Amino acid sequence: MDAIIWENDHLRLLDQTKLPGTMEYIECYDYRKVAESIKRLAVRGAPAIGAAAAYGLVLGAKQINTTDRKEFLEKLEAIAGELRATRPTAVNLAWALDRMLMRVNTSSEQDVEKIRRVMLEEAHAIYQEDVQSNRKMGEFGQELLPNGARVLTHCNAGALATAGYGTALGVIRAAKEKGKEVSVFADETRPLLQGARLTAWEMVQEGIPVTLITDGMAGYLMAKKKVDCVIVGADRITANGDVANKIGTYGVAVLANYHKIPFYVAAPLSTIDMTLSSGEEIPIEERDPKEVTHHAGQAMAPDGVQVWNPAFDVTPNSLVTAIITEMGIIYPPYTENLAKICKPNK
Ligand SMILES: CSC[C@H]1O[C@H](OP(=O)(O)O)[C@H](O)[C@@H]1O
Predict the structure, then answer these.
(1) Taken in order 275, 253, 39, 119, is the CA torsion positive or negative?
(2) Closest by Cα among 181, 183, 184 to 147
(3) Strand arrangement of the beta sheet that strand 328-330 belongs to
(4) Could you say which residues are annotated as the site Transition state stabilizer (predicted)?
């Protein structure tokens, strides 16, 4: 299932808000449609929104009506700013836009039409590199999974959250491709149910045994010794190895630590932000309270209730057993070992 397709000179986004019931693509010819799709999580997942934003900038470039390079660049920066503002936590979004702008600004090309072609090349490169990174991550990560491994995951860090194959679910896929019997416990992941709607769907599609649990069941499942390890994705990892990921991840990490179960994070280098020294500096997106008080348009809580709805939390590096990257499996001390594989973002 391709969440992101560039076809016939426009971007097609699988509307993930309609899964698992309906597979419907959003046809984007305007960068504002891409921005709106990222905001409402029609396309979501750190690497996926980075790739979508890169293609969104390509669409924006086509909408700038000038042949003057300076004016073109000024308007392109403004469009990039609108795309960057859609979601604050996943660093891949900013990383992809910065990479696109860097490619344009370091090009000596004066012909705006040729610049547009260079931008499309760069967006394709971002997309293709993400799939390759996921496969390399899977190759390294599957070494951590013995035959018969029972893996708990939270949210969706699969093909739908990336350009394809997945980060956490890429490790699961790679283990299966090696002939290992691996099964998955998927946290439903309130409030938007990425686990129930997306991870469970991906695993069922692939014939990988998956058991859906509510978020509150993870602890008891571990206490019953039914989990061999936890693997999650990430939206931003700081230089010291702190991890921002979907809300609820921190609780799963604390439980895993209490039950002495390995807690792994699978993420490409594009998710590691070396400009931030710790997780305290990560901007955490807060979303519409209606995501918590309503489900399928039905009120689940009384009017007047207060709501707190952070979309992410931060797991301290002390609870992270290892970080699975396309450069290999990174163990503590993270500050030292991440610096060895990452170039500073800035
Ligand atoms: C492979 S990154 C997936 C990451 O992104 C998700 O957040 P959202 O669904 O809000 O975009 C979640 O944190 C996943 O772990």
Answers:
(1) positive
(2) 181
(3) 210-213, 183-187, 150-153, 229-232, 263-266, 322-325, 328-330
(4) 155
- For ligand 1, atom 7, which residue shows the shortest CA distance? 45
The token pair at 319 is: 């609870």
Q: Which domain holds residue 69?
A: 4-135
CA 102 / ligand 1 centre spacing (Å): 26
Taking CA atoms only, the protein residue closest to ligand 1 atom 8 is 45
One domain for residues 99 and 147: no
Same domain, 129 and 194: no
| SS3 (DSSP) at 231 | strand
Taking a C-beta distance cutoff of 8 angstroms, is the pair 48, 163 a contact? yes
Provide the token pair at 69.
């390079």
What is residue 134's DSSP assignment?
A: H
**Is 8 known to sit in a ligand binding site?**
no
Q: How far apart are CA 199 and CA 116, in angstroms?
A: 36
Q: How far is the CA of 41 from the centre of ligand 1 (A)?
A: 10
| Residue 178, annotated as binding a ligand | no
Supply the residue whose CA is at minimum distance from atom 15 of ligand 1: 233
Distance CA 57, CA 63 (A): 10
Closest CA to 130 of 331, 325, 341: 325
Residue ending a domain, among 120, 135, 150, is 135
**CA pair distance 137, 170, nearest whole angstrom:** 7
Same domain, 98 and 14: yes
- Asked if residues 185 and 151 have their Cβ atoms less than 8 Å apart, the reply is yes
Structure confidence at residue 346 as a pLDDT band (50, 70, 90)? very low
pLDDT, tens digit, 9 for 90 and up, residues 195-236: 999 999 999 999 999 999 999 999 999 999 999 999 999 999
Q: 116-151, pLDDT tens digit by residue?
A: 999 999 999 999 999 999 999 999 999 999 999 999
Indicate if 235 belongs to the active site: yes
Residue 346 is assigned to a structural domain of this protein: no
Total structural domains within the chain: 2
For 277, which DSSP code? Answer: S
* Distance (Å, whole) CA 43 – CA 38: 5
